[in-house]
Design a protein that fits this description.
about 200 residues; Archaeosine Trna-guanine Transglycosylase, Chain: A, domain 4
Length: about 200
C-alpha cells in the first residue's frame, strides 16, 4: 500500500450504493479486483484517504443484498452525467490481498454484495484473488456537488477531484462511533489476519 499526502483531493470510484453503504455505516470494507486502466502492476490502494466517488452502474441494485432506502431504480448512462455528488470520504485502515476463497466467503455478513458477484470478481482472471480494504468512512457536512468531467469516466479506480474537497474533508464526521467501528474492524481483522 502506497500512501500519498492529502495535498490533492482524490476520488475512489465505486458503485453509488456501495458508497451509500459506507457513508451510512452499513459496511466498512471495499472489495476490489481492479479496472482495465490500472496499469501493468494491476490494482492497488494507492491513497490513504479518498473521497467516495459514486458511479452509476445501472444494474447495481440487482447485485446487492442491501440498497439505500428510497434509492433510485435506474441510472442514466454515465456519458449523460453532468454532475458528481459526493457524501463522504474514507480513511484506509488496512489492506489485504486475499487468495483464499474461504476467507473471502467468511466476509459475507460484513458487506452487501451478493455472493455470486464476489465470486465472479474473485475468479475474474488467471489469478483468483481480491483486494480487501478496511476503511473508516466519514460523512461530509453537506453533499459536495461539482461538474462531471470526461476525465472521470472509464474503468479506472482513482480520479483527481477539485481541491475544494480538502476543506470539506476537515469538517467531516465519522459515520460510526469509535466503539462500533472498532468492533467491525475487529471482525474483519479476525478473518483476514488468521493464517
Amino acid at each position: 500500500m502506497t500512501q500519498t499526502a492529502a495535498a490533492t483531493a482524490i476520488g475512489f470510484k465505486e458503485w453509488a450504493f456501495i458508497c451509500d453503504a459506507l457513508t451510512q455505516g452499513v459496511q466498512t470494507i471495499i472489495l476490489r479486483k481492479g479496472g482495465i486502466h490500472e496499469g501493468r502492476g494491476g490494482f492497488e490502494f494507492k491513497h490513504g484517504e479518498f473521497f467516495l466517488f459514486p458511479t452509476w452502474f445501472h444494474t447495481q441494485g440487482e447485485k446487492l443484498r442491501w440498497v439505500p432506502e428510497g434509492a433510485r431504480s435506474s441510472f442514466p448512462p454515465e456519458e449523460e452525467r453532468t454532475t458528481v455528488e459526493i457524501d463522504g470520504w474514507a480513511r484506509l485502515e488496512g489492506v489485504w490481498r486475499v487468495t483464499d476463497w474461504e476467507k473471502v466467503s467468511a466476509l459475507q455478513p460484513l458487506h452487501v454484495w451478493n455472493e455470486d458477484v464476489v465470486r465472479e470478481r474473485f475468479v475474474y482472471d488467471d489469478e483468483s484473488c481480491l483486494h480487501v480494504a478496511l476503511v473508516r468512512a466519514f460523512r461530509l457536512p453537506s453533499q459536495w456537488s461539482f461538474p462531471y468531467q470526461k476525465s472521470y469516466g472509464g474503468c479506472r479506480s482513482w480520479v483527481t477531484l477539485p481541491d475544494e474537497g480538502l476543506r470539506l474533508q476537515e469538517t467531516a464526521t465519522p459515520v460510526m462511533s469509535d466503539e462500533k467501528w472498532n468492533a467491525a474492524a475487529g471482525q474483519v481483522r479476525s478473518i483476514l489476519d488468521t493464517p
